[in-house]
Specification:
This protein has 9 helices and 16 strands. With 303 residues, it is of the alpha+beta class. The chain has a two-stranded antiparallel sheet with strand order 1-2. A two-stranded antiparallel ribbon has the order 3-4. Helix 4 runs parallel beside helix 7, helix 5 runs antiparallel to helix 7 and helix 7 crosses helix 8. This is Reverse transcriptase domain-containing protein. InterPro entries: DNA/RNA_pol_sf, RT_dom. Pfam families: RVT_1. One of its GO terms (biological process) is DNA biosynthetic process.
């Protein structure tokens, strides 16, 4: 769509911020006014030129708002310094032409490799060196070098623990909010924080599932007001909340089923993408079969 929109040259050089209640005018030489109605549209028009540049076969660029990520494939780490030079020079030239600047404090690079590496390349843009980090945070998800997502789950555990401590200030076993209210808060806040981006990082491993169940358990104890020695399965039944590992595995499979058109295998049953109709977002209660059959997430069975 943005390819058919012409971009006048005076938009960059003559941007002004106009206050509706005053007669004064203020020139804005950098970025877009925060909170403006046309800000997101203008930014999409500007960055569309950058995303359409052909950087080569082994280079891919993507962006979400003003967060830009560049993926470069190389046979060895010592090749990255040279392979990154041309794409970064193009980006530096693009930002200069559009009167934009790069936030070097928030910019970094990492190396995704299965094997250990001893050489860390020097990545620069406009003579400014990027810092190296073993993990990077992109759109709320921590990406580590091995892509095992252990660091993301550890950070998630610290965040949930902090939220749970604040939650315990307003409710206890003998006083505070009712179980119905606490369950609603858990489903709307804690559960969504835990499952955010699980379509990317969830791998259905035993170690991951144990960490997820541990995160869920603290919330279940708060909802049911049970002793800490009560089994997790019992807490899930009393609270009426399905196991988070089963729920996460199912929603991830539904995600791949809908967007990647992959088959869904449940026990000895194979479900084709055309056999399903998605009424809402990818949640269990928004799923139904066009043919005979149902899926029960509470019991993790299909029949």
């Amino acid at each position: 769509m943005f390819q058919h929109i012409s971009k006048p040259s005076f938009i960059v050089s003559s941007r002004k911020e106009v206050q509706p209640f005053t007669t004064s005018r203020k020139s804005t030489m950098k970025v877009f006014p925060q909170g403006s109605s046309l800000g997101p549209v203008l930014w999409n028009i500007f960055i569309n030129d950058l995303l359409n540049i052909d950087f080569g076969q082994n280079v891919k660029i993507q962006a979400f708002a003003d967060d830009i990520m560049i993926l470069i494939q190389a046979p060895a780490t010592y090749c990255l310094t040279q392979l990154c030079k041309d794409p970064l020079d193009i980006i530096a030239s693009w930002t200069k032409d559009h009167c934009l600047s790069i936030n070097y404090e928030k910019s970094c690079f990492t190396i995704l490799a299965n094997k250990k590496y001893s050489h860390i390349p020097s990545i620069k843009i406009s003579s400014q060196k990027f810092k190296f980090s073993k993990t990077i945070k992109y759109l709320g998800i921590f990406i580590d070098a091995r892509l095992n997502w252990d660091y993301h789950l550890n950070q998630l555990q610290d965040k949930i623990h902090s939220i749970q401590q604040k939650f315990n200030r307003v409710t206890r076993a003998t006083w505070g909010l009712s179980p119905t209210v606490k369950k609603e808060i858990y489903l709307k806040v804690i559960d969504r924080i835990i499952s955010y981006g699980h379509e990317i990082w969830y791998q259905d491993r035993v170690k991951q599932n144990l960490k997820l169940i541990k995160l869920q358990r603290s919330g279940l104890i708060c909802i049911t007001k049970c002793y800490r020695t009560v089994a997790t399965d019992t807490l899930q039944v009393l609270a009426g909340i399905p196991p988070i590992d089963i729920k996460t595995a199912l929603t991830k499979r539904l995600f791949h089923l809908k967007y990647e058109q992959k088959e869904l295998h449940v026990h000895d049953i194979t479900i084709q993408p055309q056999e399903l109709a998605f009424k809402k977002a990818l949640v269990p209660h928004g799923l139904r079969f066009l043919s005979h059959g149902t899926i029960s997430i509470c019991h993790s069975t299909a029949h």
